[in-house]
Amino acid sequence: MKKICVLVAIFLLLQGCENDIADTKQFVEKVKLSKGIAIEPMPESMPFKHFEYSAGFIRSPFVAPQQELTLDVISQSRDCLQPEIGRTKSLLEAYALDNLTMRGSLGDDKALWALIQTLDGDVHKVKQGHYVGLFHGKILQVTEQQIEIVEIVPDGSGCWIERNNAIALNSGL
To answer: What is the dihedral of CA 113, 161, 118, 172, to 10 degrees?
Structure first.
């Protein structure tokens, strides 16, 4: 039965093949005689202008730029107290100290953490050694009643001075 089905399928496929391809030849001749659409010539390209790069006059793009001589650079070169400029800042260093509120503490005497709330309502957990505030405030000590901080503020002459500050517990909402 399979052989008969295969033979019938082959026979039907061969019926589609004819030797008469006159209509195809006629179509090809018609297309060859018809004129196509004229294509615009390509625009002429601009002549190449050679540029000789001289790093003596222009900074090389492959070399990191040098730090400009600014007040920050001048003040860093002095022999006085300077904050750690290259240190990665924490989220709480974007807020002034009066915009931060101590809401409580966690832990024991060995490792006491303070809970600080921002004006946005976010609560952060900090401990001794963390930084808060706009003036490089480092947390010296966390107690159940307050957070003691030492800030480094500019003195106006290019140097910095230390200033003690604290954030007291405020449990009210």
So the answer is: 70
Note the pLDDT tens digit of each residue in 11-65.
777 766 666 778 888 888 888 888 777 788 888 988 988 877 666 666 777 777 7
Asked if residue 16 is part of any domain, the answer here is no
pLDDT confidence tier of residue 116, bands split at 50, 70 and 90: very high
The residue segments making up the domain with residue 123 are 88-168
Task: Record the pTM.
Answer: 0.54
Which residue type sits at 37? Answer: I
In the numeric block, which tokens belong to residue 32?
Answer: 């060859």
Q: The dihedral of CA 166, 171, 172, 173: what is its sign?
A: positive
What CATH number has the domain bearing residue 145? 2.30.30.830
SS3 at position 113: strand
The DSSP H or E segment spanning 105 is: strand 101-107
Q: What is the Cα 93 distance to its own chain's centre?
A: 20
Q: Are residues 137 and 151 in contact, defined by beta-carbon separation less than 8 angstroms?
A: yes
How long, in residues, is the chain? 173
